[in-house]
């Protein structure tokens, strides 16, 4: 024979219990001791709870307390629904049991104290969906109530379902943790690749700017050298004597030529003129050759100096190029080491997180077996 339902069974005061029963009786139109499951949301709203007819947790809860799908629930099942934290009744009032305000409930009914325990849980447990927590609490409360009422078959069904749901939740959390950890690793990889691309782009730009500057420097020096050669040549053109300096012998021959011509001794004058012309041509050629050699020697010295300047600039450009390459390699190695450190740190943290999760699950499994 079932015992009479007591307010303290659900952590309620007598006034709260009476208020819920009054509303329940209003929806129990045929006084059968049960109300249609379709009216549960309306009854809860009448008790001040903002629950929609399509509330997912409410639907799961009704399916748990009415596993046969009869379409009706009794006062006991209605009280189970009303006293769950997610569904809202009595959360802020005195007398609600700790089992209804705690966190994850184990099979023996010993709940963890929500906020305190979550602070020490892995992210997957700490971020557990509130609706799932409530559903597990409802199912566990239903199991314990069936146990108290002597409904052991129903209690066994609820216990089996509770174990299945907990295993499902553990698998879901484990997979969520793995997915998040994979996403974290991929995030680091993507960030590293993006940083590497930006690094290469920056250094390519630097090298292009350096090469452009080096090329401009070489062109300016070549232009300067060309201007120097042209200035040298122009200067020597201006220094050339208007009238070449002839030898005394040639000048004497010209005098004799002129004298013979004045004496009308034209035959002799012609002979002297012929010899004087040959002499003058030879002397002018010799002077031109000497001048050319002098100019060539001086221009050669200028060009050698210019070649040294170009060679020196080219060497300085190459040293600068090698320094840039060295700086780039050093910075690349620092970035690669930093990436390795970040990756190793993440791997270490994820290993700690995974081990902590495994220990927590193993501890919980041991607790479940003991209960």
Short key terms for the protein model shown above:
371 residues; mainly alpha; two-stranded antiparallel ribbon; 10 helices
Count of DSSP H/I helices: 10
Rg (CA only): 54 Å
DSSP summary, beta strand count: 2
Helix content: over 70%
By helix and strand content, what is the structural category?
A: mainly alpha
Q: What is the approximate shape?
A: rod-shaped
pLDDT < 50 runs, ≥5 residues: 91-128
Major beta sheet summary = 2 strands, antiparallel
Give the strand order, joined by hyphens, for the main sheet: 1-2
Q: What would you call the quaternary organization?
A: single chain
H-E order: HEHHEHHHHHHH
Separation of the first and last Cα atoms: 26 Å
Average pLDDT works out at 81
Task: Please indicate the percent range of residues in DSSP E strands (runs of 2 or more).
Answer: under 5%
Describe the structure.
The chain is mostly helical and 371 residues long. It has 10 helices and 2 strands, in the order H-E-H-H-E-H-H-H-H-H-H-H. It has a two-stranded antiparallel ribbon with strand order 1-2. Helix 3 packs parallel to helix 7 (130-149) and helix 7 (130-149) packs antiparallel against helix 8 (152-239). The chain starts with 13 loop residues before the first helix and ends with a helix.
